[in-house]
Write a structure and sequence with these properties.
- About 11% of the residues have low confidence.
- A hairpin with a 2-residue loop joins strand 16 and strand 17.
- The chain is 17% helix and 36% strand.
- It is α+β, with helices and mostly antiparallel strands.
């Protein structure tokens, strides 16, 4: 092959490669034109905030997560410590998760980790300490040392574990009884002179008169009706309401029950009457509020809306 032939072949190859490159460029441009929306969309951005601003032990932490592309992402994951908390959609582009705090936990800084669509945000929250009073209770003979039955414990545990996707409640919770508050949330106790380790008063007591009405503080579904005759030795006659999304209420020591399991109740609807059944020293209502299985202070729920 002569030098001229070699030059002509090299020229022909170069032209051919240039044509291929131009063809590929046109094909890519066509693909980009065909799918402009998919490539233009930014990755989902997580915007996270928490309330209250200055929480203390016993408070319920609300974690709000805003997403840019709610239709293309799974529900965010919210974890704190070794626990994961469900995030429920409350608006088209916003999720909310509740994190309970209790008197048995340590105060101080804790990390809340929010994950979604490949993104992670770590938030640092300072939970302040809170001083809880100590109370000495003397139970009369026959009620001292009363142990809950296995059936009783099982039914109550099932109530507290509920995380129904539907949200029944709306707005603030109301008082379940007109009586004065006789025992606040979080009190530590001695029973007949013996300190109850790992115990705190998991609710609020109302010193209502015997037979006075007990009403639902918020809408929900009756998930538990228990009676002394069924083995509810400690709780007494009891009603449990599922408010939805991990929030449940329990009403103890009732003298009368006006609802049945499965009933949908409205705020202010009578569900029973104050009594002194179970482990009780006198007529009163015990109202416990549970968030994702943990007993929280009901009081903030009565003065601010938890969405």
């Amino acid at each position: 092959m002569t030098t001229v032939d070699r030059a002509q072949k090299l020229f022909t190859t170069s032209v051919s490669n240039l044509q291929v490159n131009r063809l590929v460029t046109r094909m890519v441009a066509g693909m980009l034109a065909a799918f402009p929306v998919a490539l233009a969309l930014p990755a989902e951005a997580l915007q996270v905030r928490m309330t209250p601003a200055n929480p203390k032990l016993g408070d319920t932490l609300s974690v709000f997560i805003n997403v840019d592309n709610p239709g293309t992402a799974a529900s965010p994951t919210v974890t704190s410590g070794d626990k994961t908390y469900p995030a429920f959609k409350i608006t088209p582009n916003q999720y909310r998760a509740f994190i309970p705090t209790t008197p048995l936990q340590n105060s101080g800084k804790r990390t809340v980790r929010v994950s979604g669509d490949g993104q992670v945000q770590n938030l640092l929250v300072q939970v302040s300490d809170r001083k809880f009073p100590v109370q000495r209770i003397n139970l009369p003979p026959g009620k001292a040392g009363v142990q809950a039955t296995e059936y009783e414990l099982k039914r109550v545990a099932e109530l507290k574990a509920l995380q129904t996707p539907q949200k029944y409640w709306s707005g603030i919770f109301t008082k379940p009884n007109a009586g004065r508050i006789s025992t606040i949330y979080g009190v530590r106790r001695y029973y007949n002179g013996k300190f109850a380790k790992d115990y705190y008063h998991r609710g609020v007591d109302y010193a209502g008169s015997a037979g006075s009405p007990v009403v639902a503080p918020a809408a929900g579904r009756v998930a538990l009706v228990g009676k002394v005759s069924q083995g509810f030795r400690v709780h007494g006659n009891v009603v449990g309401i599922d408010h939805g999304q991990g929030v449940t209420s329990i009403f103890m020591h009732l003298s009368r029950i006006n609802v049945k399991e499965g009933d949908i109740v409205k705020p202010g609807q009578v569900i029973g009457a104050v009594g002194s059944t179970g482990a009780s020293t006198g007529p009163h209502l015990h109202w416990g509020l549970y968030v994702n299985g943990q007993s929280v202070d009901p009081t903030p729920w009565r003065y601010q809306e938890f969405k």
